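Anyone up for a design puzzle?
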């Protein structure tokens, strides 16, 4: 189970900052401690080597060993620490000077010959019983003009150095602890102040609700990182607001669209039940009801199609199609309806396109029936298509009542009504052009309407070269 404090971004960042600071300070302290220890040991080694060399020089100035035996205090006091070891002995005999306060056992040492200087490499490490380090060395010294040398064994006990290093370790540990505390505290305060704009954004975000979608996160006076986040969130809120308004309008339009045929069904049925009817009257009633039910079925099918498109639940399978053949089939299919309004089709197409044949026909069919339904009687309808390097374009043009470009841009909305004629129940449910736009979306293309000042309106369908399947 997580601790509540660690669920805070400020606490997490402050803790991480403190850990990093501790690691850095610990590494630095370890490096400095190791360097100091090495420097102290080197100083002790040179001190020991220098004193042994002085012993050899003094012995060489004597006439014989007896003079040294008569003045042992001179040599016993030449090593500074009381714990230091100094042993002088003739080869093969017992020491005549033996200063070993702690009675340490002398390790096996190879004496440095008389004709060689004592170097750092001749020293050997040792440890006293209490863990303090000891440096040992042994060397042969010539006494006067005697041929028999004297063996000098000396040791330097690192007592003072151990005390200094112990005190230094405590300081390093104290510095690490103090660094952790200060880093945690200062990091927490700094982050808390630095993340204060997040609190402002949080309070503003709390105001967003379905009833209040106009609230936006503040972008001014924000750090660059949070400004980008606020900009992205505001863009998301714009899309949510647009989608919510579209959904609300869609629900309202759908309810209105369904209510009309349902009211017709209910009204006709209630009238029929007010008194006995003969068979022909019931047949007429059922025929009228069937027309209304068919209209409801078409609305439901169109809504289901648009819903599947919105949720990417349609699999697109494309193949090459001959543009001229497809447009001629569509013109032939709607020729009867066009003749009723004294309208005719003009076809101009060439090339091959790549699209889903069924959806291509449905999109162009919707534009053709839209042109027949709302175009001026006695005017031609132009169907054109041409292929290019970036895809192919289909255009449907007809003459109708004068519309503005702003009205033309809204024609692909669901349940859009441009004038009173579009609200006739028997004519359209307002989803035809919305389905055209949906078909173009799943092909990766685009649909647009262009209103001309002379009453003509042209619908453009732009299909890409290779739609995403």
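Challenge accepted. My sequence:
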């Amino acid at each position: 189970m997580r601790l509540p404090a660690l669920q805070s971004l400020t606490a997490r960042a402050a803790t991480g900052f403190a850990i990093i600071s501790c690691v850095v300070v610990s590494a630095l302290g370890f490096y400095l401690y190791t360097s100091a220890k090495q420097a102290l040991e080197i100083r002790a080694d040179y001190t020991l080597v220098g004193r042994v060399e002085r012993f050899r020089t003094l012995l060489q100035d004597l006439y014989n060993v007896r003079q040294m035996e008569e003045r042992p205090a001179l040599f016993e006091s030449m090593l500074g620490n009381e714990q230091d070891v100094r042993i002088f002995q003739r080869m093969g005999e017992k020491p005549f000077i033996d200063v070993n306060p702690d009675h340490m056992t002398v390790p096996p040492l190879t004496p440095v010959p008389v004709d060689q200087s004592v170097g750092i490499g001749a020293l050997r490490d040792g440890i006293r019983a209490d863990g303090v380090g000891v440096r040992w060395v042994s060397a042969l010294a010539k006494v006067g003009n005697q041929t028999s040398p004297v063996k000098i064994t000396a040791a330097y006990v690192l007592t003072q150095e151990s005390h200094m290093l112990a005190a230094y370790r405590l300081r390093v540990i104290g510095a690490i602890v103090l660094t952790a505390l200060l880093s945690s505290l200062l990091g927490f305060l700094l982050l808390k102040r630095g993340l204060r704009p997040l609190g402002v954004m949080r309070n503003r975000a709390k105001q967003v609700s379905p009833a209040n979608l106009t609230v936006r996160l503040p972008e001014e006076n924000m750090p660059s990182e949070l400004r980008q986040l606020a900009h992205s969130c505001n863009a998301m809120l714009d899309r949510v607001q647009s989608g919510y308004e579209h959904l609300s309008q869609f629900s309202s339009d759908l309810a209105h669209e369904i209510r009309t045929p349902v009211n017709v069904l209910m009204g006709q049925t209630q009238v029929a039940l007010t008194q006995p009817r003969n068979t022909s009257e019931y047949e007429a009633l059922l025929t009228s009801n069937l027309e209304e039910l068919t209209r409801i079925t078409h609305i439901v099918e169109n809504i289901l199609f648009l819903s599947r498109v919105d949720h990417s639940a349609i699999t697109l399978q494309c193949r090459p199609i001959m543009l001229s053949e497809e447009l001629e089939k569509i013109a032939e299919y709607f020729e009867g309806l066009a003749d009723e309004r004294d309208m005719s089709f003009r076809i101009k197409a060439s090339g091959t396109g790549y699209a889903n044949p069924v959806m291509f026909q449905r999109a162009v069919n919707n534009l053709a029936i839209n042109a027949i339904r709302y175009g001026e009687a006695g005017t031609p309808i132009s169907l054109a298509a041409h292929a290019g390097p970036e895809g192919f374009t289909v255009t449907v043009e007809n003459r109708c009542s004068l519309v503005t470009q702003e009205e033309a841009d809204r024609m692909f909305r669901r349940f859009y009504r441009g004038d009173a004629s579009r609200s006739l129940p028997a004519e359209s449910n307002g989803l035809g052009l919305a389905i055209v736009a949906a078909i173009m979306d799943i092909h990766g293309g685009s649909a647009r309407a262009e209103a001309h000042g002379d009453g003509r309106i042209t619908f453009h369908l732009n299909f890409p070269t290779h739609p995403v399947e």
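A detail worth pointing out: The first strand starts at residue 85 and ends at 90.
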